[in-house]
Amino acid sequence: MAAAPPSPSASPGTLLPPGRDTALDVWRGLALITIFINHVSGNILENVTHKNFGFSDAADLFVMFAGYAAAAAYFSRYAIGQRLAVSLKVASRAVRLYTTHLALVVLGGAVFALGVIRTGDFGLFSVIALEPLMMDPAEALVSAVTLAYQPGFLNILPLYFVLIGMLPLLLFVASRSLSLAVVLSAALYTAAGLTGTNLPAYPLPGGWFFNPLSWQFLFVIGFALGARRNRLGAAMPYHRGAWWAALAYLVLALVVTRGPGLPPAGWIPLLPDFLTVPEKQFLSVPRLLHVLALCYVVAHSPLQGWARGLPSRHPLAMMGRHSLPVFCTGLVVSITGVALKQTGFDGPVFDIAYVTAGVATQMLVAGLLSLTEKRRGGSPAGLPAAVQPS
C-alpha cells in the first residue's frame, strides 16, 4: 500500500528527494488502528478486521511499512556518505525500542497485577502469559532482558528491535547492491522456514512468536521498495497481468478463510507446511504472498489516490508519522481493555465504546506530537523526524 504508481513527472533514473509519502502514513495509521482492535481480544469489532478475510493481518503490513519507511529515512543519507551518523542514529533508535519494550513488560504486568489485587483471581496472570513472572521471577526477568521471555501482546517490539538492529548491515549491503541484499534476505528466510530455525524462547520451546529470521524478509522487501521509490519515483510499477493475478489470489484467500478454513498441516504430503499452510511464526509463503498481493492491488487502485490526497494533518496520517508512541499507547490501552474484559466488563456496548475511546486516545497522542513537532519547526526537508521505522 505504501507503493506509489509511477509519477508523471518522474523519469527512470531520476533521483527524487525522499520527502514524505502521505499514503504510507495513512496506511500505517490504519494498520495501527487494526492492531489495536485485534489486541483487545474478544471484542466484537475484531470480527471485521481484515485478518478474517485473508491469510495476513495488520502486523504483516506494519513490518513491510517499517522497511519502506526505513529506506525513506536513512538510505539516501547513507548512500551519499553519512554512514557513521546514520548508523549511530539507527543504533539509538534500536536502544529506544529495547527500553520501550522492557517498560511495557513492566507496565503490562502492573495492569494485570492490579486486576489480581482487585479480584483475587490469580488466573488473570495466565491471560497474557505472566505466570513465569510469578512462578520464577529471577529467571523470567533475566529472560525478559534477553528477549527470550515475551508475554502475550508484547512480542512485536522485540521483532522491531532486531529489524532495526540489523538495519546498519542492510544499509551497508544495499548501498553496494540492493539486489544482493534482497537475495541474501530471501536465502535466510527460506532456510529458516524449511529448517524451522528460530531464536530461543522462555519458558516454552518453539522460539519467538515473530521469528526474526523469517520476518526480516518482509522488512527487506519493504526497504527495497522504499529505496526504489526514492530513486525512480515508483516502488511497484503497474502490470495488468500481475494486478489481476494478485487480485485473484486475494479472492482465493477470502474464499478459503471464510469457507473451509485454513488447510491443516501436512495437507500436501510432498511439500513442507512452510510452502503450503498460511502460518504466522515463520511468515509462510502463502501468508507472504497475501500481504504482497494486498499491497500491490491497493497501490494501483483508487484507494491509493484517496490516501495520497489526504492532508498531512489528517488523523490517520498523523498516527502513521508518530507510529511508535501511538503503537505503545494503543498497546497499553488494549492490555487494559483485555484485563477489564476478564473482570466483568464485556458485551457489544462496552466493546464499541472502549475501542472508540482507545482509537480516539491514539489520535489525540498523534495530534499532540504533531503540534509539538510544528512548534519546533519540523525537520529538514526529506528527513522528517517522525519517519519511524518501527
Query: Main β-sheet, in a few words?
Result: none
Secondary-structure element order, as H and E? HHHHHHHHHHHHHHHH
Mean pLDDT: 89
Number of domains: 1
Concise overview:
By secondary structure, the protein is an all-alpha fold. It has 16 helices and no strands.
Descriptive overview:
The chain has one domain (22-375). It has 16 helices and no strands. The protein has helices spanning 22-39, 58-79, 83-119, 131-135, 137-145, 156-165, 167-176, 178-195, 212-232, 240-258, 273-276, 285-299, 302-309, 315-321, 323-342, 348-375. The longest helix has 37 residues, at 83-119. It is globular and about 60 Å long. The two termini are 17 Å apart. Keywords: Membrane, Transmembrane, Transmembrane helix. The chain crosses the membrane at residues 58-76, 97-117, 153-173, 180-201, 213-230, 242-262, 282-303, 324-340, 352-371. This is OpgC protein.
